[in-house]
Design goal:
This protein is α/β, with parallel strands linked by helices. It contains 8 helices and 8 strands, in the order βαβαβαβααβαβαβαβ. The longest helix is centred in the middle third of the chain and has 21 residues.
Length: 254
């Protein structure tokens, strides 16, 4: 999938200039390898898999199993790097020194790349997880550490998936691809950030509503994300895919 050009202005609702209409291509991604969801069932639905790299969840064996499942289905594999925080599932912001975070990201990417190679596939993109995802939108030092770790692992020419912010701006400035993503199962603040998970209404649970929101988001992003860490994940992913395809979208991995 072609990366997004971040150089142009966005309209008030975040749509890309010249955003495609129906019959265009969009990706459907979910977090896998986190030991809390049915990876095999999700792999039958999504087109890209953000694979936990062992720091917030997962293990070498789980990484390899997910990569094998993805390779068998033609699903793209992405490195879901995070803080070293299994206790809090990577959802606690940490003030990790630059050099340490850079090395941790490189370690995670290398581990997933090894698992992917054993499965006959490759790591196609980077997507930070949880607190690191949000921190790298606003913290230039941590964004640089994550990008540099990605580059140190030999993947600097491959794209970064996320929301607009420091990390995507840095990747674009260094000549790498950037891929915008949207979350139909999360509430947004007026400035385009995600509402904190601890607040009422932050996480949506109605499958029909999530599917409708996914169709609305598709023209504004490169990839639609459905969270996989709850019991309704597979049903929601199926509903989103059906709604997107029913609206004329072609689904394709990153």
């Amino acid at each position: 999938m072609a990366a997004t050009d971040l150089s142009g202005p966005f309209d008030g609702e975040g749509a890309r200039p010249g955003a495609p209409g129906p019959a265009a291509v969009v990706d459907l991604n979910a977090d896998l390898g986190e030991e809390v969801t049915d990876d095999e069932a999700l792999l039958d639905v999504v087109t890209s898999a953000n694979v936990a790299c062992g720091f917030h969840a997962g293990s070498p064996a789980i990484m390899r199993a997910v990569c094998e499942g993805a390779a068998a289905r033609g699903v793209s594999v992405g490195a879901q790097v995070s803080y070293a925080d299994r206790e809090h599932f990577g959802r606690r912001a940490l003030d990790v020194p630059y050099a340490v975070l850079r090395a941790q990201v490189a370690e995670q990417v290398t581990a997933l790349a090894d698992a992917a190679a054993q499965a006959g596939t490759v790591v196609a993109y980077l997507k930070p997880h949880g607190a690191l995802y949000h921190r790298t939108r606003t913290d230039p030092e941590q964004a640089d550490a994550v990008w540099s770790g990605w580059e140190d692992a030999g993947h600097g020419a491959r794209p970064v998936l996320g929301m607009r912010g420091e990390l995507l701006d840095l990747a674009a400035a260094r000549g790498a691809g950037v891929l915008l993503e949207g979350f139909p199962d999360r509430a947004y603040t007026p400035d385009g950030s995600l509402v904190d998970r601890s607040l009422p209404g932050a996480v949506l649970t109605d499958g029909d509503e999530i599917a409708r929101r996914a169709v609305a988001l598709a023209a504004t992003v490169d990839s639609v994300c459905v969270h996989g860490d709850h019991p309704g994940a597979v049903a929601h992913a199926r509903a989103v895919r059906a709604a997107l395809e029913g609206s004329g979208w072609t689904l394709r991995g990153l």
